[in-house]
Design goal:
Nucleotidyltransferase, domain 5; about 40% helix; about 800 residues; Helic_SF1/SF2_ATP-bd_DinG/Rad3
């Protein structure tokens, strides 16, 4: 076919219809004809469907029954449309819908549309692998397409034509060798979509891969050498001037504190509120003072880690030619050996083959090999589990020199700035004592570091998956001794799980795991090594917990230590350490330095500013959360969220319960409220970007959304706190902390639980007001702030951050509108 149509003519088609179903009627047609990469003709027409439009279609397309009543019937324009398309390749964004619907309408008028079909959704997924969503409006923003009137046929067709030309141009810029490898998986693309790739291959010469590294038929991006680094000034304000940053007195004060404490041998604890520009404050102050040392920055989450690399790190790299290295655990990176092995086999799964194509494109672009850059991987995690790095690379591998993890390990010593997350810092420094040597360490959001230190002292195994492994092995023929061990393990684990769900037993007594320990000490195979390490390690406490997913539930066995770890044991005496936190004092009797186990410390405090661009409302009539009547609570919560969503202002809704969040999401779906929900619609980082891109005005989140995700894109935003973020009193850590505090004659609730909840609340609220020009309205729908004795402490603490008002919900709606408009 390619030989016959070396220069095919493409018809980019978009239809608007009465619905998305198979019985839909066409109400508008837009066609753009492209030949030799030039638009040679456009065509548009309304179609009278002889049926009333529903409100959703009217709102979506802007078409009305009155307008369509004057339009021609499809039969009157069928020949004209067929003549346009007959000698073209049919191209559409979601071609299956458009081509099938139009072919059916033409067939009933006596015309058989047999043209090849190309899908721009699949082409974009392959050639833009780092995008999160591939709807036309989202792509218009991401790729700067002209989509002035979305959901009108001709406007969508023109935007799709622009996308199609952009795709072809990108293919032309890629090496022929990679395109040839990609097209070997072309049968996994819809219809004749691969013909576009084949056409571009036919145009290209073979000598076009000199700008890439070739290893075993895989082409990789060459690293660009940075220009000679520029010397930063020891004056913070001068560095800010070079970066074009606005003058911020509180940021300067923070930077000067960092400078003053640089030569102090003790650990420097600095209390600084969110939103003052701390990252630039310590980067621009410490970089000119390192004198051969490295700056190591640790933040709570990978999302925040990526955020610093992409924003502050990139700006410093462009301006001062100073590079930074992001370091995560090996599992975050692609293992080229493993990926190459999957290329050698034939997979019949279309999604896996499309991933192979995507990754071949991505390897021409990525500098890091960080799989977090590939945004669609959650759709088939098993494949990415197969190709992620395990931390080992054989020196005889052809990929040894270009292996992403090996390069990070070998080159990190030469990078002036290292950026990591708390979990990896603790895991790495626990087994590599040299990691923190010759470093200036900044622990950002140090209040989260204490919890990360606790998590690092725990281990978790998935009992559900272990029981599946045991069940599968019991189906196989094996020696009698192994059979008996497996049966005993199955019995003991099943008994623990049964007790957990029936009797709600979480913490396990020592005698309940004695037999399990005995069995695992005798178990010869290595497929249950995680369970063996947990049971036979130095852990002193064991408990069960579960997680509910949309389609199933999983049970976990966890182990921990009853004593607290001291972070100081990880540090080299030469390591200068800064611990920066929104609060240093958990309460009057408990401070962060004590919890982290530091002896010699200094404390510095920056003054708090009242933020008048953010107001906090307490709903004094909010309904209490009652487990016995959860459905009523959720229904009332949904009513209030719907009322707030009608303000048409971006809204972040924070939950403390995943189950309640997912249930509320289902109820919002029933009311046709468009929203994004963590877990249901993707990982936190993915849905955050989609929210920032304007895909939805409502975002439901939990977990990491309380901790370290900034919302800077929105000029106005509403943050809804559905429930105060108290720690679960049944959690192992909460009980451990309570026991520790009682031993030291302190009150667990007032000296820890309440202050930590206030801290989480303040941080979450601060995340939605990060710019001077940003206005943020916070609504707290938990009446305990008003009804409980400790509520006054919460409202008093919040009032130090932003003005607080106590109102009925109807008054909140009115005042909120006045504040934000």
């Amino acid at each position: 076919m390619i030989e016959e149509m070396k220069k095919p003519k493409y018809a980019i088609v978009d239809l608007e219809a009465t619905s998305a179903g198979i019985n839909a009627s066409i109400i508008q047609v837009g066609i753009v004809i492209i030949q030799d990469d030039h638009i040679i003709k456009t065509y548009e027409t309304d179609i009278n469907p002889h049926e009333k439009l529903d409100d959703h279609i009217i709102s979506l397309t802007g078409l009305t029954d009155k307008r369509l009543s004057k339009a021609p019937e499809f039969s009157q324009v069928a020949k004209e449309i067929f003549d346009l398309l007959e000698d073209c390749v049919f191209v559409a964004h979601n071609v299956k819908f458009d081509a099938n619907l139009l072919a059916e309408h033409l067939f009933f008028e006596g015309y058989e549309l047999m043209t090849p079909r190309v899908d721009t959704v699949e082409l974009t997924q392959v050639f833009y692998p780092t995008l999160e969503k591939y709807s036309l409006p989202i792509l218009a923003k991401s790729l700067s397409l002209n989509l002035a009137n979305a959901h009108t046929a001709i406007s969508d067709a023109k935007a799709t034509a622009e996308l199609f030309l952009k795709l072809r141009n990108k293919m032309r810029q890629m090496p022929k060798r990679t395109l040839e490898t990609i097209v070997t998986y072309g049968d996994s693309l819809l219809f004749e979509t691969q013909m576009v790739i084949q056409e571009i291959i036919a145009e290209k010469t073979s000598e076009d891969d000199k700008d890439y590294i070739r290893v075993a038929d895989i082409l990789l991006k060459k690293e660009k050498a940075l220009a000679k680094p520029k010397q930063l000034s020891r004056d913070f304000e001068t560095n800010c001037h070079y970066l074009g940053l606005e003058d911020r007195p509180i940021q300067s004060q923070f930077a000067h504190l960092i400078a003053e404490r640089f030569d102090d041998s003790s650990t420097s604890f600095i209390e600084a509120q969110s939103g003052i520009g701390k990252t630039y404050g310590y980067l621009l102050t410490l970089l000119p003072r390192l004198e051969g040392k490295q700056l190591l920055i640790s933040v709570p989450t990978k999302v925040l880690q990526d955020q610093i690399v992409d924003n502050e790190g990139q700006k410093i790299k462009e301006t001062f030619h100073i590079d930074c290295q992001s370091i995560k655990s090996p599992q975050n990176y692609l293992k080229l050996d493993a990926f190459y092995q999957t290329l050698q086999r034939q997979d019949h799964n279309r999604l896996i083959n499309r991933y192979k194509m995507q990754l071949l494109v991505w390897l021409l672009e990525t500098e890091t090999g960080d799989l977090d850059e590939v945004k669609q991987k959650q759709r088939f995690e098993a494949y990415f589990d197969e190709i992620k790095h395990d931390g080992f690379i054989d020196a005889s591998s052809p990929f040894f020199e270009v292996d992403f993890w090996h390069k990070i390990e070998s080159k990190q010593a030469k990078k002036p700035i290292l950026i990591t997350n708390h979990a990896y810092l603790l895991a790495r420094s626990a087994h590599d004592k040299s990691f923190l040597e010759n470093k200036v360490l900044v622990i950002d959001e140090a209040q989260k570091f204490f919890l990360a230190l606790e998590r690092a002292s725990q281990k978790k195994v998935n009992v559900t998956k272990i029981l599946q492994i045991i069940h599968k092995k019991l189906q196989q023929e094996s020696p009698l001794i192994l059979q008996r061990l497996l049966e005993s393990l199955q019995f003991e684990l099943s008994h623990l799980v049964s007790d957990f769900y029936q009797k709600k037993r979480m913490l396990l007594e020592e005698d309940s795991i004695t037999q399990l320990r005995q069995d695992m000490s005798e178990y010869p195979d290595n497929d249950l090594d995680d369970l063996k390490q947990l049971l036979l390690g130095s852990y002193t406490a064991f408990w069960l917990e579960s997680e509910q997913f949309e389609t199933h539930r999983e049970t976990y066995l966890r182990a921990g230590e009853t004593d607290f770890r001291r972070f100081q044991q990880y540090l080299s005496p030469q390591t200068k350490t800064y611990a920066i936190s929104a609060t240093l004092s958990i309460s009057k009797k408990v401070n962060l330095a004590d919890l982290l186990g530091f002896d010699e410390v200094t404390f510095d405090y920056l003054p708090l500013d009242i933020n008048n661009n953010q107001n906090i409302w307490l709903d004094k009539a909010a309904d209490p959360y009652e487990k016995s009547d959860l459905a009523s609570y959720e229904a009332l919560l949904v009513e209030k969220l719907i009322a707030l969503s009608q303000k048409n202002i971006p809204m972040l809704v924070l939950f403390t319960s995943k189950q309640v969040m997912l249930s509320v999401s289902e109820r919002l779906d029933e009311h046709h409220i468009k929203h994004l929900t963590q877990y249901k619609n993707g990982l936190a980082s993915n849905i955050k970007r989609r929210f920032d891109n304007g895909e939805s005005k409502v975002l439901l989140g939990t977990g990491s959304f309380w901790e370290g995700v900034d919302f800077t894109s929105q000029d106005k935003i509403i943050a809804v706190i559905t429930r105060l973020p108290f720690d679960n009193p049944e959690d192992f850590f909460t009980k451990k902390m309570a026991s520790y505090l009682r031993e030291h004659k302190k009150n667990p609730f007032y000296d820890y639980t309440l202050p930590v909840a206030i801290l989480k609340l303040k941080q979450a609220i601060g995340r939605t007001n990060r710019r001077k020009t940003q206005r943020s309205a916070v609504v707290i729908l938990d009446n305990r702030v008003v009804t409980k004795r400790y509520g006054k402490q919460i409202s008093k603490a919040l009032a130090k951050q932003s003005p607080v008002r106590e109102e009925n919900f109807e008054e909140i709606l009115s005042e909120l509108s006045d504040f934000l408009l």
